[in-house]
Amino acid sequence: MRIPFGHRFTPRLSLGLAATVLAAIAMVPAQATPSNPEGMKAHIAAAEKVAASHPDLKGPLNLCKTATGAPASSFMANYKKWSAETPLPPMQVFDNLYFLGAKWTTAWAIKTSDGIIVVDAMDNASEAEHYIEGGLRKLGLDPAQIKYVVVSHAHGDHYGGADYLQKKFHARVVMSTIDWDALDKLRNDPDALKKVNPLFGPPPARDMAVNDGDTIKLGDTTVTEHLIPGHTLGTLATTFTAFDHGKPHHAVAWGGTAYNFGPLPDRLQIYADTTKKFTDVFGKDNIDVVLSNHVSFDAAVAKMAKLKERKAGGPNPFVVGNDEVKGFLTILGECALATKDSLPAK
Questions:
Q1: Which residues lie closer than 8 Å to 274 by C-beta, 6 or more apart?
Q2: Torsion 43-20-56-275 (CA) sign
């Protein structure tokens, strides 16, 4: 089914994603007694301090709500509002980078001299056809040139459309070895499969596995895959060079953000350790562009609006600077530690 841009389109999998985010928000019961209330408050304060200096980071700051047991009703009110809105149009945001997606999940397309690398595949075949294939055509690009689809992690709202792209365009599907193994385990467990939201597309056939530091070279472009355990144990962050009127910038597509894996203190610590490690790594690499696969975390909607009004020689709003990239990771880590400290003492 192809739906013309500008027509109202409600993503079929919004309920699945809504359930995922609600699970994260409701991970800690509001009435629970935190194991370390003072630590929780200190981590939230640290995150708020960073966000106060970087308005684009108000979205990531919402992750601290997992520590305070924020009510789900406000989220559902936003869900009903967002799901009824017109879809986001695709947009070129750098010389070689294109936004594809909606107000729920998104994908990014990196154009190279020998084809296209797509990062994340959205929820299902319908969305892959409408937003990714249709979006590329809308932008004057040929979706038949999709050579790789990098799936950041093994959640249905990111792998759900990969099967469609794999079969229609013969694209190589890339995921970490850890998360391919998780999908294989899911495929071989009929009981677990029954619990997967039926609106998600099927897992793609196992294809190209990568590990921390592996690279993918396509034409004149090389992307590097970094293992960032936390959201899943095999989540990937993809780094590459984005060009703005020929000027190079160092970009990262951070693959997984929310703490929707349940009240697991060890996992939250892994998450926080990951963000600390990559705060240092991305500082040394001078990463100055941070992208998400959910617009609520990277302020992509506001940045695209500013980009439309950009005057000749003006700054690209997606270039936020290394300090803000490190702030993004600091907030994720501080909110993870706040959530850990909010868990009831055993």
A1: 228, 229, 230, 333
A2: positive
Is the domain 14-69+87-342 a CATH 3.30.365.10 member? no
Note the pTM of the prediction, 2 decimals: 0.89
Burial class from Cβ neighbours inside 10 Å (0-12, 13-18, 19+) for residue 271 reads buried
- The pLDDT tens digits of the residues spanning 34-47 come to 899 999 999 999 99
Number of H helices, E strands in the chain: 15, 12
- Output the CA–CA distances (angstroms, integers) from residue 318 to 51, 99, 125, in the order listed: 17, 11, 29
What's at 216, amino acid-wise? I
E strands in 127-282: 146-150, 172-176, 208-210, 215-218, 221-227, 236-244, 247-254
> pLDDT digit string (tens) for 88-97?
999 999 999 9
Domain boundaries, the chain: 14-69+87-342
